[in-house]
Amino acid sequence: MKKLILPLIIILSIGLTGYFFGFDTLFLPGAVKKVRQGRVEVLQKEADDAERRFKDHLESSEKAGNAYEKLGKKLLKRKDWTPAIKALSKAIGYGSGGARTHYMLGQAYANRAQELSSKKDTGMALFHYNRALEKNKNLIDAEYGIAILYFYLKKDPQEAIKRLEILVRKEPDFFQGRFALGNFRYSVGNPARALAIYESLYSDLEKKPDSPVMDQMKKNCKENISRIQLELTR
After folding, report:
1. Radius of gyration, alpha carbons of the chain
2. pLDDT higher for 181 or 21?
3. Which of 41, 48, 148, 225 has the most other CB atoms within 10 Å of its CB?
4. Residues near 53 by Cβ (< 8 Å), separated by ≥ 6?
């Protein structure tokens, strides 16, 4: 089988990072990186100051939680997984334990698990994705994260496919999930099913207004359709 285009699939890949956080955060030139580093240092100081004030009264606890959540989000965007895990864990400890915070912590653990081949981190990622869903059952990003985790880290493609099929039936406009499902189906040796998914997805994408994300997904989808069609005619 020829290798398909795989954007928006690998956990927090360039495409996925751009989708959630904006493409202006990617490929930063050196001067801009220094400015962003300064911003991280400011956030760290705010978090540390709020934590020190926590000893005085409860209101500061809330400020500390918010400050650490902001810091964790910034570190996650920078792909600094371990510092992000520490910051987001502190945010939860100080009461900023909403669904989105647990989701971001799941992302950080999943990425570190991928880099370190750590089963413990994989388990922690799954735990926090599920905690996010307990707090907000409609957080499709967490559902998607679990499917990606099962496919790439837990090496259980059938469970990943089952979860993703349920998700895209429930949320047909979650195009990213449908694209991933096409890749999953192709990867397990079912190009005909993958082709049907891509063709249906491309038809729906054509009906949507143009945008950088939609245009790139349409381009990649069309390329995968062409490659699979060529493969199936041989």
Report:
1. 20
2. 181
3. 148
4. 60, 63, 64
* 63/45 Cα distance (integer angstroms): 12
Contact 234, 4 (CB under 8 A): no
Identify the domain containing residue 60 by its residue range. 14-232
How many domains does the structure of the chain reveal? 1
- Please tell me the predicted confidence (pLDDT) of residue 52: 62
Whether 7 maps to a domain, the answer reads no
pLDDT digits (tens, 9 = 90+) for 40-51: 677 677 666 666
Distance CA 193, CA 199 (A): 10
Per DSSP, the residues of 11-78 read TT-HHHHHHHH-GGGSS--HHHHHHHHHHHHHHHHHHHHHHHHTTT-HHHHHHHHHHHHHHHHHHHHT
Contact indicator for 128, 103 with CB cutoff of 8 Å: yes
Q: Which of 114, 134, 140 is nearest to 125 (CA)?
A: 114
C-alpha distances out from residue 212 to 15, 80, 149, 201, 226, Å: 11, 26, 26, 17, 21
Token pair of 218, please? 């349409």
65-116 pLDDT per residue, tens: 899 999 999 999 999 999 999 999 999 998 888 999 999 999 999 999 999 9
> What stretch of H or E contains 210?
none
pTM of this structure = 0.76
Widest distance between CA atoms in the chain = 73
Residue 104 within a domain:
yes
119 falls within a domain? yes
What is the rounded average pLDDT for all residues in the chain? Answer: 83
Token code pair at residue 188:
């397990």
